[in-house]
Amino acid sequence: MTATIDQRRAAVGAGAALTIGPLAVGVPVVLAPMAGVTNAPFRRLCRRFGAGLYVSEMISARALCEGNEKTDKLASFAPDETPRSLQLAAVDPRYAAEAVTRLVGDGRVDHIDLNFGCPVRKVTRNGGGGALPWKRSLYRRVVAAAVGAAGPVPVTVKFRVGIDDEHQTYLDAGRIAEDEGVAAVALHGRTVAQLYAGQADWSTIARLKEAVTSIPVLGNGDIWEADDAMAMMAETGCDGVVIGRGCLGRPWLFGQLAAAFTGEPVPEPPTVGAVVDIMAEHAELLVEWFGDHRGIREFRKHTAWYLKGYPVGGEIRGRLGRVESLDQLGELLATLPDEPLPDENRRVARGHTRGPQVVALPDGWLDDAWDDATADPEGDSAASGG
What we know:
8-stranded parallel barrel; disordered C terminus; 40% helix; 2 domains
């Protein structure tokens, strides 16, 4: 493994950095927006382990413009958080422009990422998320509206390969975004129809890199450990990696990635004893951010991810998933034995694995990719997506 990492470092270049407009990112690593996960406490925890760009949960442009209280909370950053990176979903150029104008005018963000990859049915059935790039003209107008309103704040775009294998959009989406002045593009190497099933097709990232030449191209999909990131960059020539499910319950992955990219020895996965300390810290951060009641409930879903692959019994896992307070959490964590992560479990998948799906789309959506379409404003949902 060490020799493999060293060979890939040579191909990628140790000390590789990433520049997104005026932002200099210490290592070419970006945290993917994930609903209910990449809130301010989780971003703070990940940042403690390693450098990178840490993006908020996806928020709705329309909901932000309408003053939705939940959306406003999602768009909040810790006082010491920098750079402040926010992902925005929009299907209407007017909402895109207004939301970006508000965010930039209020000095709330240093970077905006546009979501055109969300596969959630309630978003795609109204033309949003991963469905929108099929309508090239509408997609161009939304991107142009956001870039035009952002001024000096860099705008990036994240999308999937397409709706399905027969309706691929990623090359056009990348070229259009480049034409309209975005600072970088990111590709998840799956279609909307795939959801999270099967393997991400890294060859699409390589083809996008060949098509988009003046701005960074980032790759996303199936990066479970540091060696995967080096492999993706070596195989595709991409300029950086976007980490989604691989960091669920593993914020220390960003430390391993930082080490790999800077030529340092990659730390071993923590033992259960060290994981327990990180879990307690994460829970405390969530309680501080959301309050006692919501904070501990927000933490429950993380317990299974943290212990994935470790030799911890099902009974204690179940109790952790029902924990009611920080005190109770501390008592349960104190009972866990300090065991290492078995080697065979280093790349165990976590998070969503469902798919494939039949993609929900507006009536007639696939009839003409180049018509002057508009999308239902309901597609600009207040719900977050991946």
